[in-house]
Specification:
CATH architecture: 2-Layer Sandwich
Strand order of the largest sheet: 3-4-5
Helix content: 40-55%
Length: 140
């Protein structure tokens, strides 16, 4: 059981782990031991996620999310399988925890009079600078 928040718990049968050989340093050990972990979690069909959290997770533009709604996390930071497994589960919990936070609605505001005046003044200054540049080319 992976506890994300006190309200959201993901049972182990919803998580699919596969172990593969890790790349990188490790000597002869890297050729013998499958220490990297690939953790898969089906976000689209998970009964343990609230609907709002599921929608936020699926709406994210995340390269780890497949077209079928499966979140794939690859962990090969450590040289032993147990630590990589814990790392993958912690990262999954962090992703789901981030989706529980409701983004604040943006309140549309009008620009202040001072900011509008500064913008127009900057445009006039820039225009004059470019106009002066073109006159100097015509003289030659």
């Amino acid at each position: 059981m992976l506890e994300v928040t006190p309200q959201i718990r993901i049972p182990d049968d919803e998580l699919s782990e596969s172990f593969v050989r890790s790349s990188g340093p490790g000597g002869q050990n890297v050729n013998k031991v499958a220490s990297a972990v690939e953790l898969r979690f089906d976000v689209a069909r998970s009964p343990s996620l609230p609907e709002t959290v599921r929608q936020r997770l699926l709406a994210r533009r995340d390269r780890r999310l497949t077209d079928d709604g499966v979140l794939v996390i690859a962990a090969n930071r450590f040289r032993d399988q147990g630590r990589n497994r814990e790392d993958a589960r912690a990262r999954l919990a962090e992703i789901v925890r981030a989706a529980t936070i409701v983004p604040k609605k943006r309140i549309a505001t009008k620009p202040t009079k001072g900011s509008q005046e500064r913008r127009l003044q900057e445009k006039k200054t820039r225009s004059a600078h470019k106009r002066e540049r073109s006159k100097s080319w015509k003289d030659e």
